[in-house]
Design brief:
The complex is a heterodimer of chains A (159) and B (191). Chain A has 159 residues and is an all-alpha fold. Chain A has a domain of 62 residues. In chain A, 74% of the residues lie in helices and 0% in strands. Chain A is built from four helices and no strands. Chain A is rod-shaped. Chain B has a domain of 103 residues: RNA polymerase sigma factor, region 2, helix turn helix motif (Rna Polymerase Sigma Factor, Chain: A). The mean pLDDT of chain B is 81. With 191 residues, chain B is an all-alpha fold. Chain B contains eight helices and no strands. The chains are: A mainly alpha (159), B mainly alpha (191). At the A-B interface, helix 1 and helix 2 of A face helix 2, helix 5, helix 6 and helix 8 of B.
């Protein structure tokens, strides 16, 4: 049997939206569901309302495709623009942040280098001063080797 | 002479032409049903139309691979359900979009109820009840709603629903039972 025959032979509701047979909820006890008559009636009404709405929507006049296209194109363009702006903003923000951090790191390294240089200079100066002080102290404290003789010479002159 | 020409044309038809004719007939037959299911499920006319088109396009592409192991309707319904699932998945990702563009007002849903033979009061009451069902179906989970609509709107058997959704019959029955319990509860009946 071809598919066409299959369709022609056993469609449930093939030619229309509201041509379904009025079964369904009544058969549900066989499907393992027990429905009260009131609920069955409400569900049947629900089915009819869906069918009626669907039929009305199916046969409503279609909008021309051209009318919808510019709006879609406009939306697409807006979405792309927004997307590109977001990406560009994100990238430039990232680059700026990275550069800012690099600048901060460079400044911190410079400050550290200056501080080290200053420390080294200060230490060198302190050492120099210490050596100078030691030199002057040593030159003052060590007795001259000729001092006793000079003293004797002074005593002789007095006499 | 004319009959001879027709015979010549038919004999010249390629298997592709025959398949195209078959598919065209299938699409014409089942399109309203697919549309109705998608409309009831999405409640958005434009979206239902788009998904119906996508469903038939996908079916057309895979028509050669359809072996007839299941009913054509079940096969088409399965494609429609998968498309709908994909749509909701994408919609969840695209949360900034408007949720529904041309959706139905649930409060007015009862207005679609055809006028019956009862009194005006009975008709009003029926409309109210139908609007309540619309509202409660909206609150069902995606799977429960699918099963509920296939059963009570499309009047499919459990086995057909199981084939279309790819679930076992037991699971279908469980979802259906929960959906009915919820609708019943919303209507103010027993759980």
């Amino acid at each position: 049997m071809s598919f066409i025959d299959q369709i022609r032979k056993a469609p449930r509701n093939p030619q229309g939206l509201s041509g379904g047979k009025a079964q369904g909820p009544e058969q549900d006890p066989a499907q393992g569901l027990t429905l009260e008559p009131e609920l069955q009636r409400v569900l049947e009404n629900y089915r009819l309302s869906v069918h009626a709405w669907s039929e009305a929507a199916y046969h409503r006049p279609r909008r021309p495709a051209e009318a919808a296209r510019p709006r879609k194109a406009w939306r697409l363009a807006a979405a792309w623009t927004l997307g590109i702006a977001l990406v560009a903003g994100g990238v430039s923000g990232g680059v700026f942040e990275r550069q800012h951090r690099q600048e901060l790191a460079r400044m911190a390294a410079q400050r550290e280098a200056d501080r080290q240089k200053q420390l080294v200079a200060e230490r060198a100066r302190e050492e120099e001063e210490l050596l100078a002080r030691v030199d002057s102290d040593v030159s003052r404290q060590v007795p001259s080797a000729m001092e006793p003789l000079a003293q004797l010479m002074l005593d002789d002159d007095k006499q | 002479m004319a009959a001879g020409n027709t015979f010549d044309l038919m004999s010249m038809a390629t298997p592709e032409d025959i398949a195209a004719q078959e598919f065209s007939s299938v699409a014409a037959s089942y399109r309203p049903q697919i549309f109705r299911f998608l409309l009831a499920s999405t409640r958005d006319v434009d979206l239902a139309e788009t998904l119906t088109q996508d469903c038939l396009l996908k079916a057309h592409r895979n028509w050669a691979g359809f072996r007839g192991e299941s009913n054509v309707m079940t096969w088409l319904m399965r494609i429609a359900i998968n498309l709908q699932k994909d749509h909701w998945r994408n919609r969840r990702m695209q949360f900034w979009r408007r949720t529904q563009t041309n959706s139905v007002d649930v409060d007015l849903a009862g207005e679609w109820l055809p006028s019956g033979d009862g009194s005006a009061e009975q008709h009003m009451l029926a409309k109210e009840r139908v609007a309540q069902v619309w509202k409660s179906v909206e609150g069902l989970s995606e799977r429960q709603r699918t099963v509920f609509l296939l059963r009570f709107v499309e009047e499919q058997e459990l086995s057909e629903i199981a084939n279309a959704t790819g679930l076992s019959e037991g699971t279908v029955k469980a979802h259906l039972s929960r959906a009915v319990a919820r609708v019943r509860h919303e209507l103010g009946g027993r759980r």
